Amino acid sequence: MAEMNQSPRGTRIHIGLFGRRNAGKSSVINALTKQKIALVSDIAGTTTDPVYKAMELLPLGPIMLIDTAGIDDVGDLGKLRIGKTREVMTKTDVALIVMDAANPFSEFEEKLIEEFKRLGTPYLLVLNKCDTVPSADEIAEKLQAEVKEEFIVVSALNKSGFDRLRSAILSAAPRAFEDRPLIRDLLNPGDTVVFCVPIDTAAPKGRLILPQVQALRDTLDANANAIVAKENLIAAQLDNLKTPPALVVTDSQVFGKAAKIVPKEIPLTSFSILMARNKGDLTGLVEGAKAIESLKPGDKVLIAEACTHQCQAEDIGRVKIPAWLQEHVGGELSFEWYTGDSFPEDVSDYKLVIHCGACMINRRAMLSRQRQCREAGVPIVNYGVLIAYIKGILKRVLSPFPEAREALS
């Protein structure tokens, strides 16, 4: 039950720790959390895969701390670990670049700074192990003069400097970055929203999926009313209302049914489109939908699923979307899938990238993936936008979002 009450990973500020092997990243994690979360050893390369730790950092709120492998790792396995570290960089909201005070600054840290500047990610330079050198403050002053950056001196062993580090994290963290409205900015107090929630084989037993829960909570936060019904009861619910609802939100998979049932004067959209606006750039995803018309049989298409789940017979990303898209194109396409945190470093071979609703990743990760596609000249769209386009109702379901609707035309 405790897990049900925790903030989802995708809504937490992500704070990643980066640096060379044995810089003390894991020790800094443990000192920040005041727990032995990360495995600590004098052996270089102890941390192999990224380690995630959810916690509260007041007054910021829920955060996700991520420990990563050394950016200077070696060998074939080392290259794979560095690849995982680079994946974390794209989703990091605040980066801590951790250095050993006895061997503080090198080309590795310089490249990390350059990359975070390119990504637009705030970063902090942390000079760790100050207990191992006689004059850590003098080292920091000298580095600050050379690098023209501020260095925060800490010792994970004796816990010194961590009050200053926590304050710096609070100052650097983008407070409003994750706290974006999902639906509440579309509503006035007292409005009614009707949620169309189909229950199929992919629906989790005994609960709703995350976007549905978040949309329901956001509606309540707006002091609005929520009605939740399966698709076969939506017509009856609309007939029972004395006044039309302010909005109907449906699952994208039943777009066709919902569009026929809901009168055209009532705004209609989907959970996936709400998530596209919340987690990424909806206008960019709508622009990506127009590339569907240029697809030809044999083209390579990437489908990115940010969560890992057991595929069902009627899986949306593995079965339904490929079938709908191939029917629209008039021939077979070459599909590839990436799941979880994985995303290809090079997307230039694909003619289209189709992303899920992104409820399991944070906003910075989704924007980073969109930026990567844009820089490669590859259009990207998400499930809800693509389905609405193929069903011929995208313009209608974008009615609550005039800027994105304008991009379509």
TrEMBL record:
Record InterPro entries: FeFe-hyd_GTPase_HydF, GTP-bd, HydF_dimer, HydF_tetramer, P-loop_NTPase, Small_GTP-bd
Coiled coil: none
MF terms in GO: GTP binding
Domain (Hydrogen maturase F dimerization): residue spans on this chain: 182-280
All copies of domain Hydrogen maturase F tetramerization, residue ranges: 285-400
GO cellular component annotations of the record: cytoplasm
UniProt cross-references to Gene3D superfamilies, sorted A to Z: 3.40.50.11410, 3.40.50.11420, P-loop containing nucleotide triphosphate hydrolases (3.40.50.300)
G domain sequence ranges: 15-129
Organism lineage string: Bacteria, Pseudomonadati, Pseudomonadota, Betaproteobacteria, Burkholderiales
Domain of life: Bacteria
Organism (species): Parasutterella muris
UniProt protein name: [FeFe] hydrogenase H-cluster maturation GTPase HydF
Biological process according to GO: tRNA methylation; tRNA wobble uridine modification
CDD domains assigned to the protein according to its UniProt record, in alphabetical order: Era_like
